Structures are given as C-alpha cells and as structure tokens.
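Protein folds are increasingly written down as discrete tokens. With that in mind, we are printing a sequence and the tokens encoding its fold.
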Amino acid sequence: MNYTIHQLAVFLKIAQTNSITKAAEELHLTQPAVSIQLKKFQEQFDVPLTEIIRRRLYITDFGKEIAVAAENILDELNAINNRMLSYKKQLTGRLKISVVSTGKYIIPYFLSDFLQDNPGVQLQLDVTNKSRVLESLEKNEIDFALVSVLPDYIKLNKVELMTNQLYLVCNENQKVKKSVYDKSIFENIPLIYREPGSGTRHVMEKYIEKNKLSVIKKLELTSNEAVKQAVIAGLGYSIMPLIGLKNELINKDLKIIQVKGFPIKSVWNMVWQKNKNLSPVATAYLNYIRKEKSNIIHDKFQWFEQYANEF
C-alpha cells in the first residue's frame, strides 16, 4: 500500500460528512479533486470503502474501520509535530471554535495574526447555524463559540468583540419613496427569512413579535448568502446584518431602507463554558483577543462603523 497522508485526511472527512461535496467544502478543495483522491485511496483496497445507494453515498463497515484508523494515524502525526514544536518552545495544539454563519465575515480577522504568530496551532473552525453552535458549546466539543444571541440555559463567560447591526435591505432597483419609514412598512412587503435556529431569524422574529406586526413571509432559506441572492433577484426584502453586505452595497446590488428604530443592534460575543478548563492554546488565544480586539476592529472594520453611521 502506498496511500498518502492527504488521502487519509480526505477519506476521513468524507466519512465524517457522508458527502464528497461537504468534504470538499470543509477541506477547501474542488469536488473533482476530492473524488480523485477517494478513487486513488480505494484502489489500494480490495474491499469497498463506500457505496452509492439512490444517489447517496454511504460508508461501508470496512470503510468505517479504515476511517477510525485514519483518524488515529492523523492524530499521531499531529502529536509528533506538536512534540517537535514544543521542543522548540512554540505554542502547539488545537483551537476549536464554532461560529454562527454570519460570524464568518468577522472571525477570520480575529484569527489570522494569532495563527501566523503561532504556526504550531491547528485551527478547527465550524461555521454553522446558532442551534448547532450552542449544541457544540453545551456538549463541550469546542473551546469557544462566536454568537450574537446569548443562550440563557448555559452558564457562560464572554468577551464582547464588536457590534452587530441589522438593517432592512432590498434590491437596488426597488423604488424607495420615503427617506425614513415607520415600522408599518413590514406589513406591506414580502419578507425573506433565515431557517429556524438562525440567530438572524431570532432577532428578526423578536422584533416582529415585540412590535406586534402582521408580516408577509415570502421565503425561508438556509444561509445568509442564499437570502442575499434572493433579495438581489428581487424576490423580497429581509433584515440582514450589515457586516455581510459590504460588497453588495459597494456594488449597488442592494440598498438599505431606513426604518425608525433601526438598526437592530446586538453584540458579537466570544463565549465559553463557565467552568471550562481552557487549554494553553485556548488561554493564549483568549489573551490575544482581549489585547488586540480594539486594534483589529479599527484596522479591519472601520468601513463597518463608518457605513453604519451614515444611516
């Protein structure tokens, strides 16, 4: 057998996701590249690792055993690398963070310099919806979570990162007759929602409930990007975080409708379980965030504050 470390990592991700497409997304590879690596890996075994039933991929029992072995091998290789870096007095280990989907627009900027300064740190970053983030947090599967809506059933420590501001947006071609609307506008426009479990949807529904509005629910979509594309296509309006609209506003694909009482404001918080024993890597990252967050916001998100202040 002559399989590579890369093939082990690719097959393990396929086994974890039960999907070539999802594995490609998480590994930042193309789907054909992942398929090729799976094919080359499979060629080294006489017993099938996967099977396709009704166009769905399944891992065989033998494949599951190989996936466990692959994970063990990769863990040992990581341990060897960590020992070497530790010998060189470098910070080593894994940093596990789960982020709500709209948090993907900010979390890279709070990670990049830390990871560059600490090459021995391996990042495990999961971008998903609020429900899954909180589940990972509650099960103690991660070091930190990035959320804008804090749960009331988990005791947490937190560090506030930056303000999250949500606005009503529409297609650039949509005619806006008033400079500022009151809240009754929501009773006359078709609204596009995020899926249940989304933090953005939670904020949106809380506003609608608080103001006792009767709204027209047009669509429900499962990602911030899908909502943006639907609004750009003219399928409706939505309440969206400004942080994810930079390019669309600059390119004039979307525009903000000013509504009295807007923006709806919340705070992006980096949170962790109250009694959690943080690893040396997690502790170092927390210290980095506390020390550098103001500089990061000033350097990377000045556009956000300036844009927000225009309305």
